[in-house]
Every structure is written in structure tokens, then in C-alpha cells.
Design a protein that fits this description.
Layout (H helix, E strand, L loop, with lengths): L2 H57 L6 H10 L5 E3 L2 E3 L5 E6 L4 E4 L13 H7 L5 E5 L8 E11 L2 E11 L4 H21 L1 H11 L1 H14 L12 H48 L5 H33 L11 H12 L1
Antiparallel strand pairs: 1-2, 3-4, 3-7, 5-6, 6-7
Helix pairs in contact: 1-4, 1-5, 6-7, 7-8
Length: 343
């Protein structure tokens, strides 16, 4: 697996985890937020109705009064409303009223009138001048059967004469919760897909210098005279410099090896001549012949000296990285001389 693919996968995984974490956090806050909004509306409703019904509660005539009739008319209304995608047809608000002892004197559902609700938090706390609310499941085994109740004190002349509680099934906000969660999930998927483009660009950009360094290494491998790439990354620039130094060392060794192979015959020839002449000098021979062999030894020794001097000059040139003296020459005579040498 290439490093570009690894970088892209790492980026994709990190972005995916970040998006998933944000979605989870949003979903975790979504349900409490909607329920808090519902509770805030129920507080206003409970306090409004408590003001409307306070006279009837004080007189103990709620069940036969106008409030009960108005509530029956309200609950029988056919509501034709569309809230975003949700069609609302029937009212689903619950209202019950207790007297100052906590006994239910009115229940919009018509089933709990006369029961003692003084132990419920909404009634218990409100009768003591505090904010009362509760959430209770109709079915203990069904989490979607919970109903949120918010109470308000019914006061007359500054004294509490009863408690009015407004209830709303929590299931009423569930469609909005699911729609919001679904919308967030879709947006998260789209965001993850869109992030692929910058991920590809980041992977390409981060590996650009590595690819340039790889091309340089391939060029050196093919024997080309490639230029060292200029890299922004300090570590990669140091690696490129080290590779260039290694290339020069290897080229120098290779050049010396080839040159030594080329000069070996030039070294062996005078050495063989000197050795042969030296062996002949051990024999008795006329002086003129001896002088000739001595002259041969001198000539071959001079030849060896010239080869050694040539090697030393070559080594000195190999160590140079530039010309010490720059002179202007005419190419015409130089070309003519080379042509004359070849002919």
C-alpha cells in the first residue's frame, strides 16, 4: 500500500470519526432540547389556564362550569394543521385540576376525578409554592408512553386554592426528533463524501516531495545526470543531499575502477620492460648493449612517472567542484586541431 493511500485512509478515518462524534453529540442533545422547548410551552399554557379557571376552582364548580365546557369543545375540535411534514388532526393536551388538598376535581380525560394526586411532584411542589413538574409513563414497559406534566398554582387573592396541571405526551415530539436525526445523518454522509476531495488533495500534496525524490532516485539508477530536487521539507532535503553525496561517491569509485582497468596495460608494459632489462643486465655483455638496456630502463621509468603524474592530476581534478581560473578560448582552432589529430 502506497504512502499516499495510507495518508488518504488516515484522513478519511479521522474525518469520519469527527463527523460521527458530532452527530452523536447532536443526537444526544436533540431529545432533551426538544423536551425543554415543550416544557417551556406547557408552563405558559398551565399558568394561562390557571388564571382562566381560578374563580371556578375557588367556588368548587369546575366540573359544571364554563371551563369544562370549553375544554370539551376544544378536545372535540378537528385541527387541520401541517407542522413541517407532520399533519396534526386532533388535540392531545391533558388538563387536570386539584383542590388545595391535592384531590382531583377536574380531569379532561374523565377518569381520575376524585383521586388523590397530592403525592405527585407536580401537585405536591406547586401546593408548597414551588415549581412542580413530572414525567410519568402510562405503560412502565413502554418508553414512548411517557407524558410530561407541568403544574401552575391556581391563586385567588394571593392564596393557593388549587393546582392546574397541563400534560403532553412525549411521543408528540418524537417525529420531529426522528426527522432531525435523519436530517443530521444525511448531512453527515454528504459531508463525509465531500471531504473526499480535500482528502485526495492533501494526500497528493503531502507526497509530492516524496514522488520528486523517487523520480530522482530512478534517474540516478538509470545513469542519468539528474539534478537534486529542491524540497521544502527539511528531512527530505537532507535525504536528497545524502543521496546526491552517495551518488557522487559511487560515481567516483566506478570511474576510478574503470580508469584503473584502462591504465593497467600502460603500467604493466613498462614494468615488464624494466624487469626484462634488469634480468639481462645480470649477464655478461658488451658495454654498448648494456648501455642500451640501461637506456631502456630509464625510458620506461620515465614512462611510469608520466602515468603516475597523470593519475595524480586526474585525482586532483576529480576533487574540484568548479574551475579555479576561467579563460575565454576560440573554438575554431580547437576544432581544427581535433580534426587534424583524427586525420
Amino acid at each position: 500500500m502506497s504512502i499516499s493511500v495510507r495518508i488518504f485512509l488516515a484522513y478519511f478515518v479521522l474525518v469520519g470519526i469527527a463527523i460521527w462524534f458530532v452527530m452523536q453529540s447532536f443526537n444526544a442533545e436533540l431529545v432533551p432540547g426538544m423536551r425543554q422547548s415543550l416544557e417551556e410551552v406547557l408552563i405558559d399554557t398551565a399558568n394561562l389556564l390557571a388564571e382562566v379557571v381560578k374563580d371556578e376552582v375557588a367556588q368548587g364548580a369546575v366540573s359544571e362550569g364554563e371551563f369544562a365546557a370549553d375544554m370539551d369543545a376544544f378536545l372535540s375540535r378537528n385541527i387541520d394543521a401541517v407542522i413541517w411534514f407532520l399533519k396534526k388532526r386532533d388535540p392531545n393536551m391533558i388538563v387536570y385540576i386539584t383542590d388545595v388538598t391535592g384531590t382531583v376535581i377536574y380531569d379532561s380525560r374523565g377518569r381520575d376525578t376524585g383521586r388523590d394526586y397530592s403525592g405527585w411532584n407536580d401537585v405536591y411542589l406547586t401546593l408548597r409554592g414551588r415549581y412542580g413538574a413530572r414525567t410519568t409513563r402510562e405503560d412502565p414497559n413502554d418508553e414512548f408512553s411517557s407524558i410530561m406534566y407541568v403544574a401552575a398554582p391556581v391563586t385567588l387573592d394571593g392564596r393557593i386554592v388549587g393546582v392546574l396541571t397541563v400534560g403532553k405526551p412525549s411521543i408528540t415530539v418524537q417525529p420531529f426528533v426522528e426527522a432531525a436525526a435523519r436530517n443530521v445523518r444525511e448531512k453527515g454522509i454528504w459531508l463525509l463524501l465531500i471531504s473526499l476531495l480535500p482528502g485526495l488533495f492533501i494526500a497528493w500534496w503531502l507526497t509530492l516531495s516524496i514522488r520528486r525524490l523517487t523520480r530522482y532516485a530512478h534517474a540516478v539508477q538509470q545513469g542519468e545526470r539528474a539534478q537534486v530536487p529542491k524540497l521544502r521539507e527539511q528531512e527530505l532535503a537532507q535525504l536528497a543531499a545524502a543521496m546526491e553525496g552517495m551518488r557522487k561517491e559511487l560515481e567516483g569509485r566506478h570511474y576510478v575502477e574503470n580508469y584503473l582497468h584502462t591504465l593497467t596495460p600502460d603500467l604493466k608494459s613498462p614494468l615488464t620492460a624494466i624487469q626484462g632489462a634488469a634480468e639481462l643486465l645480470d649477464e655478461d655483455m658488451p658495454w654498448d648493449r648494456r648501455q642500451r638496456f640501461i637506456s631502456n630502463i630509464r625510458n620506461e621509468s620515465q614512462r611510469l612517472r608520466e602515468v603516475v603524474d597523470h593519475l595524480l592530476n586526474l585525482a586532483s581534478l576529480e576533487k574540484r567542484r568548479g574551475l579555479e581560473q576561467v579563460e575565454t578560448i576560440s573554438l575554431g582552432p580547437l576544432v581544427e586541431g581535433l580534426c587534424a589529430d583524427k586525420s
